[in-house]
Design brief:
By secondary structure, the protein is an alpha/beta fold. Helices cover 35% and strands 29% of the residues. The strands form three sheets. It has a six-stranded mixed beta sheet with strand order 6-7-8-3-9-10, sandwiched between helices.
Amino acid sequence: MIEVVNLTKHYGHIKALEDVTFMVRPQEVVGFLGPNGAGKTTTMQIITGYLNPTSGTVLVDELDVRKDPWKVKKRLGYLPENAPLYDDLTVYDFLCFVADVRGVTEKTKALRQTVELCGIGDVLTQSIGTLSKGYRQRVAIAQAVLHNPPILILDEPTTGLDPLQIDEIRQLIRQLGSEKTVLLSTHILPEVEQTCSRVVVINRGRIVADSPIETLKTELSGGTVVVQYRGDLEPDQLNRFGRVEVLSREDGTISVRITPEKGNDIREDIYRFIKSQDVILLEMYSEKRTLEEIFRELTVREDEVQGTA
């Protein structure tokens, strides 16, 4: 488990992080989102012990990163963005080196399991400098999991990969997430939806959202409802429930989108009204916004608030 409490990091007068607090629970895959310069990498480097915070606390499995840095690092696997690899070494020699540095006791067993997990058996004898980007990223992930840590910190694990390679890395992350606690930073929002159960959004060094993905979509969709019906009922008669937008009108079937003013759940009221009008209700469902739309609103809205402060 990772607990970040009131984390602050200043570089002179620049506030990179300000009172950042969130938690990643055991065997949970959490997406850590934010625009460039939001503070994602700084936060991850503090969690892994590469940077000291100005103030605040980070606990990894109840161990304080500042008080027990070596114990914490043994429990972490870290994949930094653009992970440094030794191009002149073969994949096998590199992983042996990492195992020695990490103090892995059953090295042969650990190597075998890691090679199988990361799918790099075909390139073990190749020099890292000759590998494709996809295989290089697999080797970088291999060095992070070789010592079988319970917690993984992955910073932009699919940067620069093609769609096929991205899909392969996503599958690997999902597999790792079934056994480990994972904090995943990425700019690719579909990747988050396919691999993560919860998102933490940071902007300008502050947390602006922390919620399960589906909950966030529902809460920030403003209670919008799409209704399709057939009968003698003009769409503007539904204005009593909120702003009405006609989506389609064909052969007596009308489809509308209704957005309530205060984000209330209006489905039951709509159902009762339509039933009282002797109209056939064909379909009604809550419309959820995409993660991309939500991310844009959270970061742009926060920027506007900061700009007017």
